[in-house]
Specification:
9-stranded mixed sheet; ATP Synthase, domain 1
Length: 132
């Protein structure tokens, strides 16, 4: 059996999950990353996507996150999400509305840097939409 570590998924509204995990897959800013026990310390931005948690007991859960950051230590990992919900509870209409709002923000963007940032966020949201 693989070593376990403490994993917490926190949103501004509440603590969604706190349990011993054997593996967590996080949509990091530079690509998906797998966290396991004794991982080197890392702090990274989290892009919109799916966090998959494999618990020490063998069960698996998936959560939709809309950005945030992850603090990874050898004995634990905490994801502080801007917004998060279990994948079974995702409101597809709310996700579609978020995408529509982001498209409007992109049209209203004034600078190239702002357009680039919003376009990347829109790309992340549409990728997420296809994943759920």
């Amino acid at each position: 059996m693989a070593d376990s570590f403490n994993f917490e998924l926190v949103s501004p509204e509440r603590l969604l999950l706190s349990e011993a995990a054997s593996e967590v897959i996080i949509p990091g800013a530079d690509g998906d990353m797998t966290v396991m026990a004794n991982h080197a310390p890392v702090m990274t931005n989290v892009k919109p996507g799916i966090v998959e948690v494999k618990s020490a007991s063998g069960s698996s859960n998936r959560y939709v996150v809309f950005g945030g950051f992850a603090d990874i230590l050898p004995d634990g990992c905490t994801v502080l999400a801007e917004s998060a919900v279990h994948v079974d509870d995702i409101d597809r209409e709310a996700l579609e509305q978020r995408i529509q709002n982001t498209k409007e923000d992109l049209q209203d963007a004034k600078t190239d840097a702002e357009k680039s940032r919003i376009a990347e966020h829109l790309d992340n949201l549409t990728t997420l939409q296809s994943a759920v």
